[in-house]
Amino acid sequence: MMRFLLLFSRQGKMRLQKWFMPLTEREKKKVMRDMMMLVLARPPRSSNFLQWRDLKIVYKRYASLYFCAALEEHDNELLALEVLHRYVELLDKYFGNVCELDIIFNFEKAYFILDEFLMGGEVLETSKIAVGVSMEEADTLQETMEEYMSKPAY
Amino acid sequence: MSPSIPLQEMIRAIRSARTQCEERGVIQRECAAIRAQFRQADNGARSHNLAKLLYVHMLGYPAHFGQMECVRMIASPRYSEKRVGYLGAMMLLDEKQDASLLITNSIKNDLSHSNQYVQSLALCTLACMGSAEMCRDLAPEIDRLLRASNSYIKKKAALCAVHIVRKVHELGELFAPAARSLLTEKNHGVLHGAVVLITELCERNPEALERFRKTVPDLVQIMKGLVISGYSPEHDVAGISDPFLQVRILRLLRILGRHSETASDAMNDLLAQVATNTDSTKTVGNAVLYETVLTVLDIKSESGLRVLAVNILGRFLLNNDRNIRYIAMMSLQKIVGTDHNAVQRHRGTIVDCLKDHDASVKRRALELSLALVSASNIRSMMKELLLFLSSCPPELRAQTASGIFNAAERYAPSQRWHIDTILHVLTTAGGDVRDETVPNLIQLITNTSELHCYTVHKLYRALLTDISQQPLVQVACWCIGEYGDLLLKGECQETEPAQVTEDDVLDSLETVLQSHMSAPATRGFALTATMKLSTRITDNVDRIRSIVSIYGSCIDVELQQRAVEYNALFKKYDHMRAAVLERMPVIEKNSLGQTNGESAVEAIKAVQPATVKQGEPPLPLQPANQVCDLLDLLGGSEEPLQPSSVQSGTASGLPINNSSTAGGDLLDLLGGFEPTPAAPAPAVTVYEKDGVNLTLLCEKHSDSGLTVTLTASNSNDSDISSFTLQAAVPKSVQLHMKAPSGDFLPARGAAKVTQMVVLNNPNKVNLKMRVRISYTSQGSACQDTVQIDSFPGL
Questions:
Q1: How many Å lie between the alpha carbon of A135 and the closest alpha carbon of chain B?
Q2: What ipTM, to 2 d.p.?
Q3: Residues A103, A15: contact at Cβ < 8 Å?
Q4: Fewer beta carbons under 10 A from the terminal one: N or C of chain B?
Q5: Cβ-Cβ contacts under 8 Å, B324 against chain A
Q6: Nearest residue of B to residue A12 by CA position?
Q7: The pTM is what?
Q8: What SS3 class is residue B694?
């Protein structure tokens, strides 16, 4: 299972953090600091895998963002790279040519997409199309309900 | 109060803040506005406010005042508010917060909501931060959803069930039947969830594992469908159909086939098919191949398949992609124990990876290389490893050095090679070796007497070039002190001799003494070596005398003490100097398990320079002890001191047991020259009661002297502690009891305790001995006495 997924920029600003295991605020902050230190220090053409404490860290850089995931002993690192790539593809499909600013200004949407793709640290939906469809329908639902609620009730 | 601004505006404002202070200002204002808004009644902007708060939280600012708002939003009928509310719950609430319990009811209601997207919000939140209590409460709901709902909800319910099982293991039983039936679904998301759930159940519960073994044919079928099927746009990734599902199925097959022949047989064909047919040009194909290899190596697969798997790993090693090389090495590391020969075939590639630029790859290659060293390839491997040591990153140095030492110790083809290797390591990475390297090397050197000349020449040359590597300098000083005469003789078979004069040697030692690079311990070595040379050289004894006296007023207390003692040796005890500074005997290898109480002979170190470690008795005590023993010795006999066994420097727990017993020990030393009780006379049982057995062994070592060895053992089922023996003899007999080997008798005779007693019967009276045995067994103290009237062998 994936223990956490972090997105951060080259300057060390956190753009998204998803924790799949309970940690205190202090522990979370420490983990984020450690991750940033480890990953940002890596030279450009190194492998995408690290060992940290008892977890395997898989990270990949897309433009200005680092996607960093922590895996347990039995997880497949190469597949984790595919998971990260799939998430980027989903973001790209949703936002249309996604860039870091999209994720900054629409962070809640990035979370919603992630929640349609991963759950409890495991892959939830393996079909690219299905995630997009669910997001569309949920967004429509959001509008319709809002429209509905803004109508005067009495 | 300033009106609150929409989310995007706030983000823009924060980003445009030029300093940290400005940013904090903006955020504080916004948080104040948000707090005010929260206190107000329901308005249309609640979700926006919470979203703003979540953004602020992500930047690292405190946002706990939003927790209750999350709870309220989740209970709202509006979808937009629920959505943000649940997101807030996942970000701000975790199972450690009390407020998380408040949302249990909302989740329960939402799980049965008519709209599937509301249901999914609840499922997602439960799977993310559900505590054990919440899980217990809601488990029946989840089970219901697993059975009767659409596939969108089923897949989410499956992963939610996984989370529940992780939190509350017993609930696994609840989900097992539903999990089984889910395997018949067509929807990939549901299948994937089902496989993950079954994996979780099997990992936790061996009974569930047994039951789910029956699903192996179904899983094989599903997998075959994926591998053979044509292109499916929905699930295709670079030509592989749904790699995520494939990998999970392979992992489940691994768990199911692990200890079962039948299950492994059922999946053999499939694994072979996947291994051969999967396209390995892209990462995704390699991910599937990797999982396949792991599965093949873990189940009871046939040998052909295993060879295929190892070959795939070998191919991975040659792959251009660094990630794949790294993965291959990790897997090879896991199987190097079991399939050693198969991995040996790829040794060349692995050794090449030592030269890779990537630090992770280097580390893996090092571990694997060390595991592959064997008697046949030791020379070539060592060459590579030494080359690696000279250029490896600093964090790997210590590991490499210790790995090289271990390998050298186990497989050294010759002594000379061994010594050369260690010297090479000390010159390259002297600062990173462990402390016990120095005494180990010294012990090794003393053991190879034919190479003393060669060794001292090499070390002398090394000393001339560089005195910064402390372990090397220490060993060099010791050797020069011991074998300085060989150095000065100028002839050596193994290496080209150098013309070394006595002055040269003393110069080099003095340089070490005076250099600011030398650690205090090193200077101690050098001083002692200088002293030892006083008996091995002829001309410059005065020079040595002056050096030693200078250090008599050194600031370093340790050096000062040594110098003063050596001065004393020059002045008052000059007649003993030769004996004291004689060549050291061969040091016996002291294994770590041995305790010092074991040996009958207390070690008397003849002015051996010990590395200063904590817990070790201070060096000054040794010369004093030494002198005392010598006095006793002079009283007892005229023979020069020859300790029969000297413990090596690693025995830091050496009890310099009070000089009073030392005298007695010397007498024993001279007399009882068999330290181990391998006596010709048979051992006689003198006491046997309550499972405690005491045997006696006698040995005459002189006309009136006799050593009695009492051996105790325990045949009970419980251990015995605080076991002590006391002895009494007739008045004219002198008795001396040695330290017992221990006081703990483990159950069922696992180990024995020996006690040696030395008796001296000058009047030749009828020898009797009364022995009192006391011990603690099962919490109660016991005592008994036995009288021994006959001593066999007497």
A1: 10
A2: 0.93
A3: yes
A4: N
A5: 78
A6: B59
A7: 0.69
A8: strand
